[in-house]
Amino acid sequence: RGAQGGGGWGEEPGARCPGDGECAAPGSPRGAAVPARTRLRAFLWCREFLAGSWKLIGPEEFGVSPVSGGLSNLLYKCSLPDHVLSVGDEPRQVLLRVYGAILQGVDSLVLESVMFAILAERALGPRLYGVFPQGRLEQYIPSRRLRTEDLQDPDISREIAMKMSRFHGMVMPFNKEPKWLFGTMERYLKQIAELTFPQEAQWKKFNQLKAYNLQQEMGSLRELLESTPSPVVFCHNDVQEGNILLLAGRESHPTDKLMLIDFEYSSYNYRGFDIGNHFCEWVYDYTHDTWPYYQASMENYPTRQQQLHFIRHYLWEDSGRRGDTTHEEQARIEEEMLTEISRFALASHFFWGLWSILQAKISAIEFGYLVRSLFWLYPHAWGGCVGRLGFHT
């Protein structure tokens, strides 16, 4: 779950892992330095894929610095030195994305690259400059990624709703059966069943999570969602603040100041999951300076009025596809969507909970994945989300 944005990784002076084994080893991606091997690989990729003036510089002139925000990938800004003139229309700076321990598989990475190129052609995402097995080169867009508190801003929430609605209206050349959600979770569960953790603290925490009987819980979740109508649309599946750019120079514009990025989880899926997952992201701040590098504030889950604000702008953007509705029909649709979204928010907790357990084992990125696992919230969420209004009434 990555992001593009300004700045670099940094650790609060004096910050320390609490000793349960979940902090990364020295030299982890949160350190500001770029490893020599990564610097050389970045230089060669830019030289080979961008050509032009990139072929005229040596490794010592090549600029590369970490970009903050990646939970699945490692991100770097690569740039030409100021004294080197452009030869043609090659970009002077690009974003290098080096794939991390992504759990989707090689086939999904290929599909994501195709998707990324299509969205770029439709001006719905950054340009694509190069693709290779270890990652890709993307357009670097002067911007900052949103902060968790930005999601509560009514203007920003309105534009996210409208952009999500447009995204859902796209026709993409991918399998249109909604297999992604439960298919991915079933694969995650099989992988989790084979996990071992060498450190006692991690193993104890892992066994606490397994005590939830995850297979049985997923069966109950499937039964609930099968009884919850939700249209199948092309979903982003990870509309969190780190995957939304606030474009430089457009901060005060009423519209078109945001851009969705990072489509590695995008697929045909249920509408309720995409919106419910976004509402869950109002709770989590992934920029916390000390271990485990995130903070959860349940009181920030959107209220009924905040949810309706989002839903109404989503539906307004969708009105061209749906046609006109009466006031009574609109009110009925809104109430149905509140129920749909609150129930599919459960799937968000479950999906990213499984994801976090696996990341705790395989990721090199320093982050408290086992602590971040959402299963400690799941019983509370189940009690609230089976009803109509989510966590808040």
TrEMBL record:
Give GO MF terms, alphabetically.
Answer: ATP binding; choline kinase activity; ethanolamine kinase activity
Task: Describe the reaction catalysed, as an equation.
Answer: ethanolamine + ATP = phosphoethanolamine + ADP + H(+); choline + ATP = phosphocholine + ADP + H(+)
| GO term, biological process aspect, one | phosphatidylethanolamine biosynthetic process
Supply the Pfam families for this chain.
Choline_kinase (PF01633)
The enzyme's E.C. designation:
2.7.1.32, 2.7.1.82
Gly residues composition bias: residue spans: 1-11
Q: In which pathway does it act?
A: Lipid metabolism; Phospholipid metabolism; phosphatidylethanolamine biosynthesis; phosphatidylethanolamine from ethanolamine: step 1/3
Which residues lie within the region annotated Disordered? 1-22
Q: Name one GO cellular component term.
A: cytoplasm
In terms of superkingdom, the source organism counts as Eukaryota
Q: What keywords appear on the UniProt entry?
A: Acetylation, ATP-binding, Kinase, Lipid biosynthesis, Lipid metabolism, Nucleotide-binding, Phospholipid biosynthesis, Phospholipid metabolism, Transferase
Family matches, as PANTHER family: CHOLINE/ETHANOALAMINE KINASE (PTHR22603), CHOLINE_ETHANOLAMINE KINASE (PTHR22603:SF35)
Give the protein family: Belongs to the choline/ethanolamine kinase family.
Q: What is this protein's record name?
A: Ethanolamine kinase
Organism (species): Gopherus evgoodei (Goodes thornscrub tortoise)
